């Protein structure tokens, strides 16, 4: 299979040792670091804020891929950009003017992503693909790690792949939720470029991270 980029979700890391965990996945060969920001309002869970991202920044030079599950979202773009985010991804439902929001992300010096929940159609992207760098397809409902992959999202990945290729857009497709070595293959075959994986990266503890990441990437196949 094509080789996807692997972006481990630190939601499944040991929060008491978060800096060491970020360093460990970096050294284990991940491509990006995925940071799930949840506000207890847009999604039913609360995680971390910009101060934590700032504190983690020295632990890896790799792309900090920050997924904001926050509403309203606009006021949080600048703080996360200042904290060291490289990519900021938002949900179209999380603000009144998503087009303005992605412009604000780029104006803050970051790459911009749009995330689609399982019930949000690919069509939502029609007038946005020119403005963004990444589409994040949620293959679980956002809020928690450890959920099962929703297979209907494979059709959405394929539809987005076709929209991107037909339009000649320079946009990556990332998939997040229930990604395992098995579902990873399905996602890549459907057209995914980047895979987010929490449980499947962190299972077994630090001695297993390199092997887990290699299995997600399909190394050796
Ligand atoms: O954003 C989310 C959940 O909202 C994800 O990033 C999960 O953290 C992925 O966890 P696994 O399904 O890989 O355990």
From TrEMBL:
Keywords: Carbohydrate metabolism, Cobalt, Isomerase, Manganese, Metal-binding, Zinc. It catalyses: D-ribulose 5-phosphate = D-xylulose 5-phosphate. One of its GO terms (molecular function) is metal ion binding. The active site is at 36 (proton acceptor), 176 (proton donor). Coiled coil: none annotated. Signal peptide: none annotated. Its EC number is 5.1.3.1. Its cofactor is Co(2+); a divalent metal cation; Zn(2+); Fe(2+). One of its GO terms (cellular component) is cytoplasm. Binds 1 divalent metal cation per subunit. It holds the Pfam family Ribul_P_3_epim. Pathway: Carbohydrate degradation. A divalent metal cation binds at residues 34, 36, 67, 176. GO terms for biological process: pentose catabolic process; pentose-phosphate shunt. Substrate binds at residues 9, 67, 143-146, 176-178, 198-199. It comes from the Bacteria. HAMAP family: RPE. Catalyzes the reversible epimerization of D-ribulose 5-phosphate to D-xylulose 5-phosphate. Belongs to the ribulose-phosphate 3-epimerase family. This is Ribulose-phosphate 3-epimerase. The lineage of its organism: Bacteria, Pseudomonadati, Pseudomonadota, Alphaproteobacteria, Sphingomonadales.
């Amino acid at each position: 299979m094509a080789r996807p980029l692997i972006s481990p979700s630190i939601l499944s890391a040991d929060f008491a040792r978060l800096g060491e965990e970020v360093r460990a996945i970096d050294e284990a060969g991940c491509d990006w670091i995925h940071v799930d920001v949840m506000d207890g309002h847009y999604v039913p869970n609360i995680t971390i804020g910009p101060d934590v991202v700032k504190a983690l920044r020295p632990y890896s030079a790799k792309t900090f891929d920050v997924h904001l599950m926050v509403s309203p979202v606009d006021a949080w773009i600048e703080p996360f950009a200042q904290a060291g985010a490289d990519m900021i991804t938002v949900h179209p439902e999380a603000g009144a003017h998503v087009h303005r929001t992605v412009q604000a992300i780029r104006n803050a010096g970051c790459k911009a992503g749009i995330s689609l929940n399982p019930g949000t159609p690919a069509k939502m992207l029609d007038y946005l693909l020119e403005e963004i760098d990444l589409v994040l397809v949620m293959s679980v409902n956002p809020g928690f790690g450890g959920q099962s992959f929703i297979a209907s999202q494979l059709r959405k990945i394929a539809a987005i792949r076709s929209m991107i290729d037909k339009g000649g857009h320079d946009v990556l497709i990332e998939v997040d939720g229930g990604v395992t070595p098995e579902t990873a293959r399905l996602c890549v075959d459907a057209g995914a470029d980047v895979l987010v994986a929490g449980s499947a990266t962190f299972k077994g503890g630090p001695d297993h991270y390199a092997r887990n990441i290699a299995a997600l990437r399909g190394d050796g196949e």
